Task: structure prediction
Amino acid sequence: MKTLLMLATYGLEIVECGGTLAKHARAGDRVYASVTLARPEYREQIRRAATILGIADVRFLDFSYGEVSVDVPSKVKLVTLLRELRPDLVITQDPEHCQLDLDPDRREAMTLYLEALALSSRDWRTGECGPPHLVKSIYFMAPEHANCLVNIADVFELKERAVAELQGQLRFTAQLFRQRVSEEALRHLVPNYERLQDDPIALGKALHREMHRAYHLYHGIWSHSSLIFAEPFRRLSPVELELLV
Result:
């Protein structure tokens, strides 16, 4: 049995790699998540989504929007979490993607996660943060350059149930698409758009479903793998094999 920790900057990231988290939970692994930025009114929604996926616990780190920084108090918070939960595997955001993201919190958060992961295994503030712990495997979710895929065909609908709990995110997605995409384009993208257009939660749910299907098909069968729906990851260090597979 392994322990897996998802270091999420926002709650949606838990669902974005929710298929993989759900499969680990089903396999009997201990699965945890932390969220760096989450408004209080959305936290119960995130907890419900996590419960659907089989996540044992969600920790909210109480950082402030636009103020994430790589300072010592922030490192203490992350290193303490890593040393308490002692995960074998960590999933977090992709550094390459974060560098091009217009959200400044993502860039700062990525540097913070990497520095905390490095410090966790070293003799740094052990009296304050606990005994050192080495995370053996680090995976970057939704990477620019994937080197491994997880088959999520059997848990795709479970993932869709989880995203349906994030009603604040669904409203935001519907609003964002209405700002950026024409009505005609939305009619082409979303089945039954006329029926859903006045319900932002239903519209957001439909938009996420279409995006998820396209994304997982692209990384699945369209990537010439043998998988239909796949979540892509980039492993930080090489996979060690006795024989080729």
The two ends are 23 Å apart (CA to CA). The mean pLDDT is 96. The longest helix spans residues 200-219. Strands lie at 3-8, 30-35, 57-60, 89-93, 137-141, 148-151, 230-235.
